[in-house]
Amino acid sequence: TLLVEIEGARVLVDPVWGKHAAPSPLLGVRRFYAPPLALGALPPVDAVVISHDHYDHLDMKTIEFFVESETRFIVPLGVKNHLTGWEIAAERITEMDWWETTIFSEITFIATPAQHFSGRDGIHPNETLWASWIVQSAQHNIFFSGDSGYDEHFQTIGDQYGPFDVVFLDSGQYNEMWREVHMFPREAMQAARDLRARHHL
Q: What pTM value is reported for the model?
């Protein structure tokens, strides 16, 4: 979960305040520590960006907090159905394919490729899209990888849209079995170079 303030606009990326990143607490996928800030203590959020629909990136209880707000949602293809099912108004949701661009509150959002997968029930895999994201203003250029394995898409994104002031890269669930969908630390460093990052987190 990231809260980024860019040119006065607040953008919340993959917000997860829930206690369990799974369809049931019985699966044992729980937080190790509480969020540093309560949801109700957040400043007004202009836009929420979602990378994909896995439970550790798209949390129903967190999304429902924004039902009565004016916050906009910017999501990959297919994810809108989850949000409208949780009573987020359809007109507040922008759904995007890779390489599409939308502008909101003078901030440009570009959906870019990631090497990952999607699904929430183990029965309907890959029915929604996954994405990385570029968030740009007149002064700043930020990249968020979402979950992604390492591949040539980082070089392509860097060549087309870099350099980036800061990049946020996936490197927390590395395991040889998951190499196609998550990065090892060395791969994340190479991705930062491919993206022409000035800073990386």
A: 0.95
